[in-house]
Design brief:
mainly beta; seven-stranded mixed beta sheet; four-stranded antiparallel beta sheet
Length: about 120
């Protein structure tokens, strides 16, 4: 079974930086699109950033210019570098990856468990 494990969440001071990782493991045949969502209390979930297998990226307007999404296909790992963090960035960040496994012929979207990012004011 495929698993996505996130790491790097925590508490950071406003204006600081934080880097999240999302590592996929298991019976992976191929990974297509990957990305990050976030959910803050009292707000709707939003797509923060996405990256295709070819490296094309997209960002939410709220984080564009401050966040950078990247991936290391050899390691089946995706990263989210977050700079100039604001209090409004506080949220649970969840990674996703569209993966083909050995027992599925179609892409299936797997999700990480979520990691808390808290930016202090």
């Amino acid at each position: 079974q495929v698993q996505l494990v996130e790491s790097g969440g925590g508490l950071v001071q406003g204006g600081g930086s934080l880097s999240l990782s999302c590592a996929a493991s298991g019976s992976i045949f191929s990974i297509n699109d990957m990305g990050w969502y976030r959910q803050a209390p009292g707000t709707q979930r939003e797509l923060v950033a996405g990256i295709t297998s070819g490296g094309s990226t997209n960002y939410a307007d709220s984080v564009k210019g401050r966040y950078t999404i990247s991936r290391d296909n050899a390691k089946n790992t995706m990263y989210l570098q977050m700079n100039s963090l604001k209090y409004e960035d506080t949220a649970v960040y969840s990674c996703y990856a569209d993966i083909k496994s050995g027992r599925l012929s179609r892409w299936f979207r797997y999700w990480g468990q979520g990691t808390q990012v808290t930016v202090s004011s």
